[in-house]
């Protein structure tokens, strides 16, 4: 699980209306009375979290589960995994007792969408479009990196970008640009105006299950 990232405050200030956010996060579970009351778990017991998450198009999505452990000041995050049919899942294990919180954030992954499009042109042999695609991708990645929090290490991503922006063998530059790991790293800095958020759900983590 990663440390806090720019999209990961449990209560961020997002200036635009919901109409500008294309992703819906629904049917989050487990929850008690729609999140009005906390879910209960014991220390070390897995909490399997699910939600229906979908957009108004077919672009790839990026979904993070943000978790604040009991007593922690900052949230941590982990990627949720698609289980098909709009269902996304993640598992959390709390290390100590107290009140924890979790929330889901989701957005259209602009970097992955661009990489998917470039990959299709590679497979169809549309070499005449490669330079244009690389310039477009560089603009997308630079916009994402510009939103990184101060102190976040973006040096490796800037180096990755420089490798396929400069002159050189076109096929090699395209192959570098399609690196999925670097694409995933850049995608964690989306425009916060287009990030959709679930409600905040609480988890009461107990040391041991109370005897009935």
Topology (elements, then pairings):
Elements: E1 23-29, E2 39-42, E3 46-55, E4 61-68, E5 76-79, E6 81-84, E7 87-93, E8 98-108, H1 110-123, H2 130-146, H3 155-165, H4 170-177, H5 180-186, E9 196-197, E10 201-206
Parallel strand pairs: 2-10
Antiparallel strand pairs: 1-3, 3-7, 4-5, 4-8, 6-7, 8-9, 8-10
Molecular structure report:
27% of the residues lie in helices and 30% in strands. It is of the alpha+beta class. It has 2 domains: 104 residues, Immunoglobulin-like; 77 residues, no CATH class. Strands 2, 4, 5, 8, 9 and 10 form a 6-stranded mixed sheet that branches. A 4-stranded antiparallel sheet has the order 1-3-7-6, with no helix packed on it. A hairpin with a 2-residue loop joins strand 6 and strand 7. Helix 2 packs parallel to helix 4 and helix 3 packs antiparallel against helix 4. The longest helix is centred in the middle third of the chain and has 17 residues. The radius of gyration is 20 Å and the shape is elongated. About 3% of the residues have low confidence.
